[in-house]
Amino acid sequence: MLKVDNLTFEVNEEGRKRCLVDHISFQVEDGEMLVITGPNGGGKSTLAKVLAGIEKEDSGEIFLDQENITEYDIDHRANAGIGYAFQQPPRFKGMTVKRMLSLAAGKELTEEESCRLLSSVGLCSADYMNRQMDGTLSGGEMKRLEIATVLAKEHKVSIFDEPEAGIDLWSFSMLIKRFEEIHQEKKECLILISHQERIIRMADKIMVIEDGKVKQYGKSEDVLPSLFQQEKCQKCVTGMEGGVC
């Protein structure tokens, strides 16, 4: 179970403080899926990075299974059971895909295990196993490999920042199936940041963040009606399809 209490993160822009995460509180029970959505630039990815320990909160507390992990750095939070997939994955020249997956899993993976992971994100193991995680891979390929690194190990909480971005429809369908499987297993908390209606409708809870603040938060059946009514009203203004903002 993940509990976040009054979390705040500020940055200094040209001598003025700007609150990117503004006193946010929420809770995700074991086996629950929380989908975080809202306008671009609203603070969703920043919140995810604070939870993973990439950014350091200014105030508030984070509890994982009733253990206060607020002072843990990124390594300690990962060891405690928090997995995180970047929206824009980093590249590693000289690191092969197989080696990266083994490091993510915390053990040396067999070819069969690596193949299964790659297949789960729509990649052929024969084509990718010995590829380097560098500029020779496209953004979509890197995104799928990043997601595979999180799937390589069981976590208490897995955070995926816009997993649908940069991948084709077939791979997206495979990811949806994998998220559904994880959700049905009820072994870990899932937090997905997404604009995709199909992902949002999978959620147990939905949180809408705008300007660093929680605008809506609650059970899916309570938030969905107003959320997609708002989306229909805004679509002609934003020009975006398949999203809520």
TrEMBL record:
It is a peripheral membrane protein. Signal peptide: none annotated. Residues 2-236 form the ABC transporter domain. Its main location: membrane. It is found in: Cell membrane. Pfam families: ABC_tran (PF00005). Keywords: ATP-binding, Nucleotide-binding, Transport. Gene3D superfamilies: P-loop containing nucleotide triphosphate hydrolases. One of its GO terms (molecular function) is ATP binding. PANTHER family: ABC TRANSPORTER I FAMILY MEMBER 10 (PTHR43514), ABC TRANSPORTER RELATED (PTHR43514:SF11). This is ATP-binding cassette domain-containing protein. It comes from Dorea ammoniilytica.
